[in-house]
Amino acid sequence: MVKKKIAVFISGRGSNLKSLINHSKKKNSLFKIDLVISNNFNVKGLKIANKSKIKNYYVKYSNKRIFENRVLKLLNKNKIDLICLAGFMKILSKKFIKKFSSPIINIHPSLLPKYKGLNTHMKAIKNKDKYSGATVHIVNDKLDSGKIIIQEKVRILKSDNEKTLKKKVLKIEHKIYSKAIIKLLTNY
Ligand code: GRF
Q: What does the pLDDT look like over 167-187, one tens digit per residue?
């Protein structure tokens, strides 16, 4: 079986990247993390990639067009089948999404369509929601808006604060991202 080649885009810590790497190392995994791209220099996620001997690049984000052209070259050169955004803090242009003809997916720490953008945990607590969770979705040119692939929820307890909720949701993120990839790859 030929494993699908994934490029993971990050901006920082890379805990989702780490969980995808772990999953890709399992016997019979359908995918391989082939490339890691970060718009930030010297971040933990790049160190994780290095440690796992995965090709990784810091691509300076001087402006969207230059950044995206450089990234597209790397993607084509490495024959990437799927892009996974994992804590990547930039919005990709319509042009980029069109030019990269394979799927691009993202993980978001809320039950989309609720709470797009930042500070999702704070918003959920403030609104006294009973549940929060995480969502993996297809990326389009609007923020956190594409078709949902997988979503899983977690109960918000009265005792929860932003920090405890974030931790619970992150645990779910690590569980559902690889599941969503498999779902996507096997439905293709
Ligand atoms: C995650 O909560 C992800 O859902 C959000 O940014 C965070 C990235 O965390 N988009 P990490 O870099 O994967 O640890």
A: 999 999 999 999 999 999 998
